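Build the 3D complex.
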Amino acid sequence: MGLRAWAPGRVNLIGDHTDYVGGLVLPMAIGLGTEVTGDRGGDWVMLGSEQFDGVAEIPLGDQADPAFVEPRWARYVAAVVGEIDPSDGLVGMLNSTLPPGGGLASSAALEVAVATALGADLTEPLGVARACQRAEQRAVGVPCGIMDQLVAVAAVANTALRIDCRTLDIERIPFPEGAEIVVIHSGDERELAKTAYAERRAECEAIEEMVGPLRELTPADVEAIEEPILRRRARHVTTENDRVDALAAALAADQLRYAGELLVASHVSLRDDFEVSTPALDELVTSLRATPGVFGARVTGAGFGGCAIALCRPGVPIAAPILWRGRPAPGAWLNPG
Ligand code: GLA
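Done.
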């Protein structure tokens, strides 16, 4: 009997560049994702793909550094095999409906789909997410947080997840009936390992060394930071944490107009204080905001390119190619029906 494993991509509704400093995030899974099909057995994990060139051929029990595996996409597979350390191999296919480098957590979906196919215990979401986060860090050296992997495993249909990345508590926030999310690509593709993601994380760590945990800083503490770039970075993280709670409350209370204003405020903060937007993303967000039936829009994920999201009335016409639209989707699964 062949197996089928699936893990979704995500959009982050709000709370970007907060997870790696123990902040708050509010992501939801989408209906695009990565599927692994095949048969277990043998001493190798061997996966072909219709989207990616070459074959991932990973021997079990191999201690080699995944960062040197070719083709490049196979580095994620190798790192997950290293983390899960399965006793049986797998021969099959890995296919994805997520655009790589689009800010929709395509690499986390790949990692979680492979982990799921190799028998990771989905009833322990945090363990699976941590293994896949370590895999990402080892595969491509991106010092990512836990958000993408955790939502790929733990997502629940029709709810967003408020994750406290300090305690790793997850709260389910019901998504309003009269709304949906639209995902549009800015046209700017990027590979996270080649962006200033690690630099931003290092800046946040430098702030914490100077003045203590970002999570505990008051607005006055932030304004007292002398170095102007670090002051702006700190202002983004602290105000973004507040916006996560404000958005969770607004969604629960069906206050869609206010929810939209919070998305826009988050975009402005990521653009001006954290400096991870691009002109194409800014233009896209501006045109989405001007669209009737749209409550608000912002970049989603790490930025530096990739996608924007809009919160809108279900089915409103959008004058841009839509990658996906809908309500929160469920997390990873193995062998349905
Ligand atoms: C990437 C990382 C996440 C998170 C976001 C920004 O998606 O994988 O851990 O840091 O960027 O919010």
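The mean pLDDT is 97.
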